[in-house]
Amino acid sequence: MLIKIKKEDEKKRLDKFLTQNLPINRSQIKKLIKSGQILVNNKQPTVHRFLKENDIIKLQKKDITELTKEKKLTANQKIKLNIVFENENIIIINKKAGLLVHPTDKMEPNTLVNGLLAYYPKIKNVGDDPLRPGIVHRLDKGVSGLMLVCKNQTAFDYYKKLFKTRQIKKIYTALVHGQMAQKEDLIDMPITRSASSGKMAVHSKEQGGKQALTRYSVIKQFNHFALLEVEILTGRTHQIRAHLNALNHPVVGDPLYKQKNVKQKIELDRIFLHSKILGFTNLQGEYQEFTAKLPDKLDKIIKELK
C-alpha cells in the first residue's frame, strides 16, 4: 500500500497524518513505524517526521488488518453511565474516578467507550479513531467529572474544532499540597513528555515544549493544603497535574506527579481533581453550561481539613 503526500498534507506530522487516514490509533502507528513496517521514501522514519509534498509512505495492508482485528471494541452493559444531559447530538457524562475513557493497547473491556457502545451502538461510526468513537476529549483515569461525547459525525467535527480552537470552558476543582503564595495566577509554562521518565514536564519551546496555559484561583487555604478552582486554556496531556507539580504544589492523591517532602499526607485512592464545569456554544448557536458537584469522598476530605 502506497500513499503519496499531496500539497495540502505537507508539514503534517507522520503519526498524526496516519491516525487521521487509517483505522488504527496513534500508539499502534508508532509501533509500526518503530518496527520498520512503515517506510517513507523507502527509509525508516521517525515517529514525529514532518511530511513533504510527494513523499511516498509505504505500508502493508495486512499489518493494518491484523491490528484492526486484534483491537475490536466490544459493548459492555455492565458499565453504568451517569448521564447529565443528552440530545440528538451529544451526551454529557459525569465520569467516575477509576474509569478509563477508552482502551489502551491492552484493550481493556471495561472502559467508558465500551459502556457507550452498549448504550448507543450507532456511536461506533462516529469520530476519526475506531477505538475512540465519539470521543473529542478525555479525562485521566483517576479524574472524575464532566465529559462531552458526540453521537454523530457532524457534532464530532464541530466540537472537535471548538476544543482545538479553545472555545470550550473547562473548569476543575483541585486540592493541592501546600499554601499558594498567590490567590490567583496564570501558569504559562510549555510542557512536553520527558524522554527519561515518560511523564509530562516543563520544557522550553526550544526543547520541544508546547504552549500550555492554566489559570487558577484559591477557593480556600488550609494549614497544609489549598483548594483551587482551575481553568485550562489549552488541552495538553496531564496539563493541570504537571503545571501544579512544577510549582511544588502537586495534586493530592496523584501517584505520578508527586513530591516526597509534603507536610501532611492524605490517604486517597484517586486524584483529587474533578471536572466541575463544562461550557460551550452548541450546534444551534446557544450557550450551554453544565456543573457537576464534588464527589462525596472528596467533599468529606474538604470538610475534615483544618
Describe the structure.
The chain has 306 residues and is an alpha+beta fold. The chain folds into three domains: 2-70, Roll (Structural Genomics Hypothetical 15.5 Kd Protein In mrcA-pckA Intergenic Region, Chain A), CATH 3.10.290.10; 83-161, Pseudouridine synthase; 169-304, 2-Layer Sandwich (Pseudouridine synthase), CATH 3.30.2350.10. 21% of the residues lie in helices and 25% in strands. It is built from seven helices and 14 strands. The radius of gyration is 21 Å and the shape is globular. The model has no long low-confidence stretch (mean pLDDT 91).
Give the secondary structure arrangement, pairings included.
Elements: E1 2-4, H1 14-21, H2 26-34, E2 38-40, E3 56-59, H3 61-70, E4 83-86, E5 90-95, H4 112-119, E6 144-150, H5 153-164, E7 169-177, E8 184-188, E9 191-193, E10 200-202, E11 213-221, E12 225-232, H6 239-246, E13 273-281, E14 287-291, H7 296-304
Parallel strand pairs: 6-13
Antiparallel strand pairs: 1-3, 2-3, 4-5, 5-6, 7-12, 7-13, 8-11, 9-10, 11-12, 13-14
Overall pLDDT: 91
- Ends distance: 64 Å
What's the helical proportion of residues?
10-25%
CATH H-level homologous superfamily name of the largest domain: Pseudouridine synthase
Class based on secondary structure composition and strand pairing: alpha+beta
Please outline the major beta sheet.
9 strands, mixed
CATH level-3 fold name of the largest domain: Pseudouridine synthase
Strand segment count: 14
CATH secondary-structure class of the largest domain: Alpha Beta
The total tally of domains equals 3
- Cα-based radius of gyration, to the nearest Å: 21 Å
**Overall geometric form:** globular
User: What is the percentage of strand-forming residues?
Assistant: 25-35%
What's the helix count? 7
CATH architecture of the largest domain: 2-Layer Sandwich
Order of helices and strands: EHHEEHEEHEHEEEEEEHEEH
Stretches where pLDDT falls below 50 for ≥5 residues?
none
